[in-house]
Amino acid sequence: MWKQAIEDAVQKTRANIERFGSQFPHVSENGHYLLNDNDEWTDGFWSGILWLCYEYTGDEVFKAAAERTVDSFRKRMDAKVKLDHHDIGFLYSLSSKAQWIIERDEKAKELTLQAADVLLARWRPKGQYIQAWGPEGDPQNGGRIIIDCMLNLPLLYWAYEQTGDAKYKEVAILHADKSRRFLVRGDDSSYHTFYFDPETGGAIRGGTHQGYQDGSTWTRGQAWGIYGFALSYHYTKNPLYLETSKRLARFFIERLPEDNVVYWDFDVPVNADTKRDSSGSAIAAAGILELLTHLEANDPDRAFLEDGLQRSMKGLVEGYATIGQPDAEGLLEHGSYSVRVDLSPDDYMIWGDYYYLEALVRLEKGIKGYWYER
């Protein structure tokens, strides 16, 4: 099943190279990806898909296309085009860091270290967190963290490994600890976002930006947490991060619907019109795959997590993948960007496509993503 799904994804990606040209896919509208000139937070995912296809096939077509994206990211860094947010890890881990991991290209390594410095500049020492959005002192976002940032922290951990400069790892750990304390609730659910006093770091309140309501559990946020804390465990071996990833994963799996692909929020009232988020299920599956690599064979949670992984991936492949639709641009249907504001609530999501393919190639060939050195 996995091999057929990968071959389908590879064929579509090959066609998309010509369709997209030098532009980058974001989300879809009327069945077609909306393209941009590398100025979205999501543009690293296209690069990551190309690198995964190259590693799986060895086809130079994918390598050449992936290298062109890295050239684009170099230009984006030089011009500082919309790098004023925390999603630098999504952008550069899957583009230039991927090139470094695969090809050992020194220029790609240098570019990735530049990106780590851009992310590090969002550290707010007074509050002791990485600010998600907006400039320092922003009245709305100056004290805000969001759970998505757990997938950006690997860029800082990696920079520490490459340079030996402890500041990168120290900031990543402090932010992960704060995220664990304030974003993860006692019942193993999660807040999407949390607000602090930017001067003192004092806790104000939890909330949401894309979930159903402030106290609900946005499914994609829960998935970010599963994968992000597993990766923080990989880099630090702090058992609290492993425990947190397991807790978040169990909560996620226990609430899978009948077809095993999640709705956009675990607390939203479900009816015939309730939107799914296939991208949330794809991220969670990739995260559980990482989590499983850190568990002992006799871990009491292993069988439950493995079953949840298989159910999730089977649900995606059989019910949401565009297999059998040769002209489809996306790999997964029924992803949701932001249902709250009716922004691509039922469309292709390039990040969903990336994590879906990452999980598939890891299951089939053991090819990991680009979050750490292999």
UniProtKB/TrEMBL annotation:
Domain of life (superkingdom): Bacteria
The record's Pfam families line, in alphabetical order, gives: Glyco_hydro_88
SUPFAM superfamilies linked: Six-hairpin glycosidases
Query: Gene3D superfamilies per the record?
Result: 1.50.10.10
Q: State one molecular function term (GO).
A: chondroitin hydrolase activity
User: What are the record keywords, sorted?
Assistant: Hydrolase
The active site lies at 87 (nucleophile), 148 (proton donor)
Amino-acid positions noted as binding substrate in the UniProt annotation, renumbered to this chain: 87, 148, 206, 208, 220, 224, 338
One GO BP annotation here?
polysaccharide catabolic process
Signal sequence, renumbered to the chain: none
Membership in a protein family: Belongs to the glycosyl hydrolase 88 family.
**Protein name (database record):** Glucuronyl hydrolase
Question: Where does this protein come from, organism-wise?
Answer: Paenibacillus rigui
